[in-house]
Amino acid sequence: MYTVTCVSYLAAIGIKSYPVFALAAHGTLGNLMMSWMSENGVIYLMERNIRKFNISSPLSAFHFASVLLRVRARDKALRALFKEHEQDFREKLADGSYVKWAMPSKSQSTAFSEPPLATVHETNELQSMHIS
Known about the structure:
This protein has about 130 residues and is an alpha+beta fold.
């Protein structure tokens, strides 16, 4: 989920316990989700029993717009937090101690490694066991 990536990125910068919001939409229906990383490094996702909006209804569309304004108001807080951590973040980038927050690419990961190819001997052995 993209919110987990955003939360991990913020934590790598040094910002924890800050909520990241997401909207899962299907047609006129939308579900507002949230995630955050606690100070001890645990990521929490709120994706059940969440606020649902049906923007085809004028009242629900108004509620959705008011929620977006409240989420937008958090922008100043995030900018202030980033300003607090910006110098430390730049120093980590410069000296190479920056925490890698993203998953390794497929070519670098051992979790997604391709199975080894069979040797010629093993292939011949398998072919000789083939029953027609």
